[in-house]
Amino acid sequence: MNIKAMTLPEMTAALKEMGQPAFRAKQIYTWLHKGVRSYDEMTNISKDLREKLRERYPFHTPKVVRKQESAKDGTIKYLWQLSDGNCVETVLMRYHYGNTVCISTEVGCRMGCAFCASTIGGLVRKLEPEEMLDEVLFTQVDSGQPISHIVLMGIGEPLDNFDNVMRFLELVNSPEGMNISMRHISLSTCGLVPMIDRLAEKKLQLSLAISLHGPTNEIRNLTMPVNRAYPIEELMAACRRYYEATSRRMHFEYAMIDGVNDTPAHAKQLLKLLKGLPAHVNMIPLNHVEESPLKPSSKEAVARFQKILEEGGVTATVRRTLGSDIDASCGQLRRKYSKEQGKT
Ligand code: SAH
Q1: Of the CATH numbers 3.40.50.300, 3.90.1150.10, 3.20.20.70, 3.40.50.720, which one belongs to the domain with range 63-340?
Q2: What is the mean pLDDT of the chain?
Q3: Which residues are catalytic?
Q4: Residue of the nearest CA to atom 4 in ligand 1?
């Protein structure tokens, strides 16, 4: 097992096998979760032990292949190269409540949503827990900005990589590590119903966001293939079970697509769908992806939609588009980079 994927008890057991006391494991764990690049940086560990660890538990750190900083809002987008040469994106956003990092959970994605750049080349592989941890750690180290919030809203479908994501959450939440509170973490899914139920069983205090993007099967089927496997009635039933299990208000993401899902009639259908469920709707003006014919809704359509939701008693916010000058959304930078490298 990769040493960075170990929980503290696992590391304690591994170090015990090497004849080391528990406090040593804790020291090493703390170093690793600060984002060191090698054992040599662990100055309170003997040279001899550092050497043994290097042999027994070699670890890798991601390399920055692109870094783009928005001149408008300070958003930074990183394209990292992983140990096998694959690349993933991480975005650092500065909000008034704290620095938020948006991480990728897979290299590519197999969900096939029509509006999303991340899925164009399909799924290459899932990320390991330590690779997700590295996204947070090295964004913090490179930018010098302390990270307090995480959203799992980058490339990939987190619930399609369930076990690795659960381990990553445990690592990042650990008091001896980054100690990021579950309440400061949001996980977004396109709607894998059985996995929503598995997540509910864990009763985590994170925020669960559902990428809804349409109030009917007809509309969701147009843009989200996952809806053919898990239609909207089943998805909403899972959301209600999730709320029952966790008492956490549900978040719904709704990308506003011109002429597709943005009329007053759609807003009313959405209200009906959410009836009785404590919910927040996050409206996202569609980010135009080069390969897609779908266009963002007009400002007027967005405002009208929001007003109908609010009047119907559902809070709805329009997400600020941060980093729009740096391809900061959903797989666009990775896509551009691989095109430049001659891979499509
Ligand atoms: N696979 C997960 C995590 C990705 S989160 C999910 O589907 O929820 C990224 C969010 O951005 C999702 O809500 C996704 O549907 C949305 N999104 C993808 N492409 C977009 C685009 N071009 N414009 C606006 N939102 C987009």
Answers
A1: 3.20.20.70
A2: 95
A3: 89, 330
A4: 153
